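Quick one:
INPUT:
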Protein backbone atom coordinates (compact mmCIF):
# COMPACT_ATOMS: atom_id res chain seq x y z
CA UNK A 1 0.00 0.00 0.00
CA UNK A 2 2.66 2.55 1.07
CA UNK A 3 4.87 1.27 -1.71
CA UNK A 4 2.07 2.03 -4.22
CA UNK A 5 1.54 5.53 -2.81
CA UNK A 6 5.27 6.25 -2.97
CA UNK A 7 5.29 5.30 -6.65
CA UNK A 8 2.32 7.58 -7.42
CA UNK A 9 3.90 10.53 -5.60
CA UNK A 10 7.10 9.98 -7.57
CA UNK A 11 5.11 10.07 -10.83
CA UNK A 12 3.41 13.28 -9.82
CA UNK A 13 6.80 14.91 -9.06
CA UNK A 14 8.22 13.68 -12.36
CA UNK A 15 5.24 15.10 -14.27
CA UNK A 16 5.53 18.41 -12.40
CA UNK A 17 9.25 18.54 -13.17
CA UNK A 18 8.71 17.83 -16.88
CA UNK A 19 5.94 20.42 -17.26
CA UNK A 20 8.09 23.07 -15.51
CA UNK A 21 11.10 22.35 -17.74
CA UNK A 22 8.93 22.53 -20.88
CA UNK A 23 7.40 25.81 -19.70
CA UNK A 24 10.85 27.26 -18.98
CA UNK A 25 12.19 26.19 -22.39
CA UNK A 26 9.15 27.74 -24.18
CA UNK A 27 9.65 30.99 -22.31
CA UNK A 28 13.36 31.00 -23.24
CA UNK A 29 12.54 30.38 -26.95
CA UNK A 30 10.14 33.35 -27.03
CA UNK A 31 12.89 35.71 -25.88
CA UNK A 32 14.29 37.75 -28.81
CA UNK A 33 11.62 36.54 -31.26
CA UNK A 34 9.95 39.27 -33.36
CA UNK A 35 6.41 39.81 -32.22
CA UNK A 36 3.32 40.77 -34.25
CA UNK A 37 3.00 44.37 -33.12
CA UNK A 38 0.95 45.93 -36.03
CA UNK A 39 -2.27 46.04 -34.07
CA UNK A 40 -0.55 47.67 -31.16
CA UNK A 41 1.24 50.30 -33.31
CA UNK A 42 -1.95 51.05 -35.27
CA UNK A 43 -3.75 51.78 -32.06
CA UNK A 44 -1.03 54.12 -30.87
CA UNK A 45 -0.77 55.95 -34.22
CA UNK A 46 -4.56 56.53 -34.12
CA UNK A 47 -4.04 58.05 -30.71
CA UNK A 48 -1.25 60.34 -32.01
CA UNK A 49 -3.40 61.49 -34.94
CA UNK A 50 -6.37 62.33 -32.83
CA UNK A 51 -4.06 64.23 -30.45
CA UNK A 52 -2.60 66.17 -33.46
CA UNK A 53 -6.11 67.01 -34.63
CA UNK A 54 -7.02 68.33 -31.21
CA UNK A 55 -3.83 70.42 -31.07
CA UNK A 56 -4.44 72.00 -34.48
CA UNK A 57 -8.10 72.66 -33.62
CA UNK A 58 -7.03 74.42 -30.43
CA UNK A 59 -4.32 76.37 -32.31
CA UNK A 60 -6.97 77.52 -34.82
CA UNK A 61 -9.27 78.61 -32.01
CA UNK A 62 -6.38 80.49 -30.36
CA UNK A 63 -5.62 82.29 -33.64
CA UNK A 64 -9.26 83.30 -34.03
CA UNK A 65 -9.37 84.61 -30.50
CA UNK A 66 -6.08 86.49 -30.95
CA UNK A 67 -7.42 88.04 -34.18
CA UNK A 68 -10.45 89.29 -32.28
CA UNK A 69 -8.02 91.00 -29.95
CA UNK A 70 -7.98 91.50 -26.27
CA UNK A 71 -11.34 93.06 -25.32
CA UNK A 72 -9.54 95.26 -22.81
CA UNK A 73 -7.29 96.81 -25.46
CA UNK A 74 -8.64 99.47 -27.87
CA UNK A 75 -9.21 97.95 -31.36
CA UNK A 76 -6.42 98.64 -33.88
CA UNK A 77 -7.48 101.29 -36.44
CA UNK A 78 -8.16 99.67 -39.84
CA UNK A 79 -5.51 100.34 -42.50
CA UNK A 80 -6.57 102.77 -45.25
CA UNK A 81 -7.59 100.78 -48.32
CA UNK A 82 -5.34 100.90 -51.37
CA UNK A 83 -7.60 101.10 -54.44
CA UNK A 84 -5.40 99.66 -57.17
CA UNK A 85 -6.75 100.62 -60.60
CA UNK A 86 -5.72 98.41 -63.51
CA UNK A 87 -6.79 99.01 -67.11
CA UNK A 88 -6.46 95.84 -69.19
CA UNK A 89 -7.21 94.60 -72.70
CA UNK A 90 -7.50 91.33 -74.57
CA UNK A 91 -4.25 89.94 -76.02
CA UNK A 92 -2.24 86.72 -75.83
CA UNK A 93 -0.37 87.66 -72.67
CA UNK A 94 -3.34 89.11 -70.77
CA UNK A 95 -3.99 86.10 -68.55
CA UNK A 96 -0.30 85.77 -67.71
CA UNK A 97 -0.04 89.49 -66.81
CA UNK A 98 -3.17 89.45 -64.65
CA UNK A 99 -2.14 86.21 -62.93
CA UNK A 100 1.23 87.67 -61.97
CA UNK A 101 -0.24 90.98 -60.82
CA UNK A 102 -3.09 89.39 -58.85
CA UNK A 103 -0.63 87.17 -57.03
CA UNK A 104 1.49 90.18 -56.09
CA UNK A 105 -1.59 92.01 -54.82
CA UNK A 106 -2.62 89.02 -52.69
CA UNK A 107 0.31 89.85 -50.42
CA UNK A 108 -0.91 93.40 -49.77
CA UNK A 109 -3.25 93.90 -46.81
CA UNK A 110 -6.36 96.05 -47.13
CA UNK A 111 -6.35 96.30 -50.90
CA UNK A 112 -9.23 96.63 -53.36
CA UNK A 113 -8.47 95.85 -57.00
CA UNK A 114 -10.45 97.88 -59.53
CA UNK A 115 -9.99 96.16 -62.88
CA UNK A 116 -11.32 97.97 -65.93
CA UNK A 117 -11.41 96.14 -69.22
CA UNK A 118 -10.96 98.01 -72.49
CA UNK A 119 -13.89 96.21 -74.08
CA UNK A 120 -17.63 96.70 -74.64
CA UNK A 121 -18.47 93.77 -72.31
CA UNK A 122 -16.78 92.06 -69.39
CA UNK A 123 -14.96 89.00 -70.70
CA UNK A 124 -15.26 85.60 -69.04
CA UNK A 125 -11.45 85.34 -68.91
CA UNK A 126 -11.18 88.34 -66.59
CA UNK A 127 -14.39 87.50 -64.67
CA UNK A 128 -13.16 84.00 -63.86
CA UNK A 129 -9.66 85.16 -62.98
CA UNK A 130 -11.08 87.73 -60.55
CA UNK A 131 -13.48 85.22 -58.98
CA UNK A 132 -10.60 82.83 -58.31
CA UNK A 133 -8.12 85.53 -57.27
CA UNK A 134 -9.01 85.67 -53.58
CA UNK A 135 -8.84 89.48 -53.78
CA UNK A 136 -11.44 92.12 -52.95
CA UNK A 137 -12.26 93.56 -56.38
CA UNK A 138 -14.55 95.54 -58.64
CA UNK A 139 -14.85 94.58 -62.30
CA UNK A 140 -15.78 97.27 -64.81
CA UNK A 141 -15.49 97.77 -68.57
CA UNK A 142 -15.50 100.54 -71.13
CA UNK A 143 -14.19 100.53 -74.65
CA UNK A 144 -11.67 103.13 -75.82
CA UNK A 145 -13.30 105.22 -78.58
CA UNK A 146 -12.18 103.92 -81.98
CA UNK A 147 -10.33 107.12 -82.97
CA UNK A 148 -8.19 106.86 -79.84
CA UNK A 149 -7.51 103.12 -79.99
CA UNK A 150 -4.09 101.88 -81.10
CA UNK A 151 -4.34 99.95 -84.37
CA UNK A 152 -2.36 96.81 -85.20
CA UNK A 153 1.15 97.93 -86.15
CA UNK A 154 0.91 101.38 -84.54
CA UNK A 155 3.84 102.25 -82.25
CA UNK A 156 2.47 102.12 -78.72
CA UNK A 157 3.34 105.74 -77.94
CA UNK A 158 1.10 107.05 -80.75
CA UNK A 159 -1.98 107.20 -78.53
CA UNK A 160 -2.54 107.26 -74.79
CA UNK A 161 -3.59 103.87 -73.38
CA UNK A 162 -6.00 102.95 -70.61
CA UNK A 163 -7.33 106.53 -70.27
CA UNK A 164 -11.10 106.01 -70.27
CA UNK A 165 -10.64 102.88 -68.16
CA UNK A 166 -8.87 104.82 -65.39
CA UNK A 167 -11.51 107.57 -65.63
CA UNK A 168 -14.29 104.99 -65.19
CA UNK A 169 -12.54 103.74 -62.04
CA UNK A 170 -12.47 107.34 -60.73
CA UNK A 171 -16.20 107.64 -61.47
CA UNK A 172 -16.88 104.37 -59.63
CA UNK A 173 -14.96 105.60 -56.59
CA UNK A 174 -16.87 108.89 -56.59
CA UNK A 175 -20.19 107.05 -56.80
CA UNK A 176 -19.39 104.35 -54.26
CA UNK A 177 -17.17 105.95 -51.64
CA UNK A 178 -17.81 108.89 -49.34
CA UNK A 179 -16.13 111.42 -47.06
CA UNK A 180 -15.75 108.92 -44.23
CA UNK A 181 -13.73 106.49 -46.36
CA UNK A 182 -9.98 106.51 -45.84
CA UNK A 183 -7.96 105.32 -48.79
CA UNK A 184 -5.44 105.88 -51.53
CA UNK A 185 -5.70 105.33 -55.27
CA UNK A 186 -2.85 103.84 -57.29
CA UNK A 187 -2.86 103.35 -61.07
CA UNK A 188 -1.14 99.99 -61.62
CA UNK A 189 -0.80 98.88 -65.25
CA UNK A 190 -1.07 95.14 -65.77
CA UNK A 191 2.47 94.67 -67.13
CA UNK A 192 4.66 96.50 -64.58
CA UNK A 193 6.60 94.89 -61.73
CA UNK A 194 5.73 95.96 -58.18
CA UNK A 195 7.66 95.48 -54.95
CA UNK A 196 5.44 94.79 -51.95
CA UNK A 197 7.32 97.55 -50.13
CA UNK A 198 5.83 100.10 -52.53
CA UNK A 199 2.32 99.58 -51.18
CA UNK A 200 3.36 100.38 -47.62
CA UNK A 201 5.13 103.54 -48.85
CA UNK A 202 1.90 104.87 -50.35
CA UNK A 203 -0.53 103.67 -47.64
CA UNK A 204 -0.71 106.93 -45.64
CA UNK A 205 -0.75 109.42 -48.52
CA UNK A 206 -2.22 112.78 -47.50
CA UNK A 207 -2.57 114.31 -50.96
CA UNK A 208 -0.22 112.88 -53.62
CA UNK A 209 2.81 110.73 -52.80
CA UNK A 210 5.65 110.14 -55.29
CA UNK A 211 8.67 107.83 -55.81
CA UNK A 212 11.07 106.68 -58.54
CA UNK A 213 10.10 104.35 -61.40
CA UNK A 214 12.68 101.99 -62.91
CA UNK A 215 13.31 101.20 -66.60
CA UNK A 216 11.33 104.07 -68.08
CA UNK A 217 11.79 107.03 -70.40
CA UNK A 218 14.97 105.56 -71.92
CA UNK A 219 16.83 105.61 -68.59
CA UNK A 220 17.41 103.14 -65.75
CA UNK A 221 15.08 105.17 -63.56
CA UNK A 222 13.25 108.47 -63.39
CA UNK A 223 12.73 110.15 -60.04
CA UNK A 224 11.59 113.27 -58.25
CA UNK A 225 14.51 115.27 -56.80
CA UNK A 226 14.13 116.02 -53.11
CA UNK A 227 15.68 118.72 -50.95
CA UNK A 228 14.93 118.96 -47.24
CA UNK A 229 11.99 116.60 -47.63
CA UNK A 230 10.42 118.57 -50.49
CA UNK A 231 10.25 117.81 -54.21
CA UNK A 232 12.20 120.49 -56.07
CA UNK A 233 12.47 118.99 -59.55
CA UNK A 234 12.68 115.78 -61.54
CA UNK A 235 15.44 113.55 -62.88
CA UNK A 236 14.20 112.63 -66.35
CA UNK A 237 15.60 112.71 -69.85
CA UNK A 238 12.42 112.65 -71.91
CA UNK A 239 10.40 115.91 -72.24
CA UNK A 240 11.60 117.34 -68.91
CA UNK A 241 9.35 120.36 -69.35
CA UNK A 242 6.14 118.44 -68.81
CA UNK A 243 4.20 119.92 -65.82
CA UNK A 244 4.63 116.66 -63.87
CA UNK A 245 7.30 114.64 -65.73
CA UNK A 246 6.35 111.37 -64.06
CA UNK A 247 5.15 107.96 -65.08
CA UNK A 248 1.71 106.64 -64.10
CA UNK A 249 3.38 104.12 -61.76
CA UNK A 250 5.25 106.84 -59.85
CA UNK A 251 2.48 108.38 -57.74
CA UNK A 252 -0.62 107.67 -55.65
CA UNK A 253 -3.50 110.00 -54.80
CA UNK A 254 -5.47 110.08 -51.57
CA UNK A 255 -9.12 109.12 -51.99
CA UNK A 256 -10.44 112.16 -50.06
CA UNK A 257 -8.47 114.47 -52.38
CA UNK A 258 -10.04 112.81 -55.44
CA UNK A 259 -13.50 113.03 -53.93
CA UNK A 260 -12.95 116.70 -53.06
CA UNK A 261 -12.03 117.44 -56.70
CA UNK A 262 -14.82 115.82 -58.72
CA UNK A 263 -13.61 117.30 -62.02
CA UNK A 264 -10.10 115.85 -61.78
CA UNK A 265 -9.59 113.21 -64.47
CA UNK A 266 -7.28 111.99 -67.22
CA UNK A 267 -7.66 113.79 -70.56
CA UNK A 268 -7.79 111.72 -73.73
CA UNK A 269 -6.68 114.79 -75.64
CA UNK A 270 -3.57 115.33 -73.47
CA UNK A 271 -0.35 115.74 -75.45
CA UNK A 272 1.94 112.74 -75.61
CA UNK A 273 3.56 112.28 -72.18
CA UNK A 274 1.15 114.65 -70.45
CA UNK A 275 -1.52 112.18 -69.37
CA UNK A 276 -0.27 112.02 -65.76
CA UNK A 277 -0.04 115.83 -65.68
CA UNK A 278 -3.64 116.16 -66.92
CA UNK A 279 -4.85 114.58 -63.66
CA UNK A 280 -2.22 115.89 -61.26
CA UNK A 281 -2.54 119.55 -62.32
CA UNK A 282 -6.11 119.48 -61.02
CA UNK A 283 -5.00 118.13 -57.63
CA UNK A 284 -1.64 119.46 -56.39
CA UNK A 285 1.36 121.70 -56.90
CA UNK A 286 4.88 120.31 -57.09
CA UNK A 287 5.71 121.66 -53.61
CA UNK A 288 2.82 119.68 -52.14
CA UNK A 289 4.07 116.30 -53.43
CA UNK A 290 5.00 113.87 -50.65
CA UNK A 291 8.29 112.07 -51.41
CA UNK A 292 8.40 108.40 -50.38
CA UNK A 293 10.87 105.51 -50.72
CA UNK A 294 13.63 107.19 -48.64
CA UNK A 295 13.32 110.63 -50.26
CA UNK A 296 12.88 109.01 -53.68
CA UNK A 297 16.17 107.10 -53.57
CA UNK A 298 14.73 103.57 -53.85
CA UNK A 299 13.24 102.02 -56.97
CA UNK A 300 10.27 99.85 -55.92
CA UNK A 301 8.38 99.67 -59.22
CA UNK A 302 9.64 98.94 -62.72
CA UNK A 303 8.00 99.87 -66.01
CA UNK A 304 8.61 96.43 -67.46
CA UNK A 305 6.98 95.56 -70.78
CA UNK A 306 6.17 92.09 -71.99
CA UNK A 307 7.34 91.03 -75.41
CA UNK A 308 4.54 90.21 -77.82
CA UNK A 309 4.73 86.43 -78.40
CA UNK A 310 5.31 85.37 -81.99
CA UNK A 311 2.84 82.68 -83.00
CA UNK A 312 4.75 81.79 -86.17
CA UNK A 313 4.09 78.06 -85.96
CA UNK A 314 0.32 78.21 -85.35
CA UNK A 315 -0.49 78.43 -89.08
CA UNK A 316 1.76 75.47 -89.86
CA UNK A 317 -0.14 73.35 -87.32
CA UNK A 318 -3.48 74.54 -88.70
CA UNK A 319 -2.42 73.44 -92.22
CA UNK A 320 -1.66 69.98 -90.83
CA UNK A 321 -5.19 69.88 -89.44
CA UNK A 322 -3.88 70.36 -85.90
CA UNK A 323 -5.86 73.47 -85.00
CA UNK A 324 -5.57 74.45 -81.36
CA UNK A 325 -7.44 72.10 -79.04
CA UNK A 326 -10.58 73.81 -77.64
CA UNK A 327 -10.41 71.63 -74.54
CA UNK A 328 -7.17 73.33 -73.45
CA UNK A 329 -7.64 76.44 -71.29
CA UNK A 330 -4.93 78.93 -72.31
N1 LIG B 1 -4.32 99.16 -72.18
C1 LIG B 1 -5.66 99.20 -72.47
N2 LIG B 1 -6.05 99.29 -73.79
C2 LIG B 1 -5.17 99.33 -74.82
C3 LIG B 1 -3.79 99.30 -74.52
C4 LIG B 1 -3.41 99.23 -73.18
O1 LIG B 1 -6.50 99.15 -71.56
O2 LIG B 1 -5.60 99.40 -75.98
C5 LIG B 1 -3.89 99.05 -70.77
C6 LIG B 1 -2.80 97.99 -70.54
O3 LIG B 1 -3.36 96.74 -70.24
C7 LIG B 1 -2.01 98.58 -69.38
C8 LIG B 1 -2.19 100.10 -69.56
O4 LIG B 1 -3.33 100.26 -70.39
O5 LIG B 1 -2.54 98.20 -68.12
C9 LIG B 1 -0.96 100.74 -70.22
O6 LIG B 1 -0.72 100.11 -71.46
P1 LIG B 1 0.72 99.60 -71.94
O7 LIG B 1 1.31 98.80 -70.85
O8 LIG B 1 0.59 98.98 -73.28
O9 LIG B 1 1.44 101.00 -72.07
P2 LIG B 1 2.97 101.40 -71.87
O10 LIG B 1 3.62 100.39 -71.00
O11 LIG B 1 3.52 101.42 -73.22
O12 LIG B 1 2.88 102.74 -71.24
MN1 LIG C 1 3.12 98.93 -69.82
Amino acid sequence: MTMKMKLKLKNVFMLYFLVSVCGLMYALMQLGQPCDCTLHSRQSSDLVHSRDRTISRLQGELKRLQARGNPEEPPKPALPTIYTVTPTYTRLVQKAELTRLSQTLLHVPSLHWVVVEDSPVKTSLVSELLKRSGLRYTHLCTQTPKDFKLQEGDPNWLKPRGVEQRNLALQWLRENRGPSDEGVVYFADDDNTYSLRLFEEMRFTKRVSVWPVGLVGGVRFERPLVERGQVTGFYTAWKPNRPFPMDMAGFAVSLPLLLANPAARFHLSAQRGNLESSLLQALVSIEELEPRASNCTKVLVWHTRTEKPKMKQEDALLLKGLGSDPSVEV
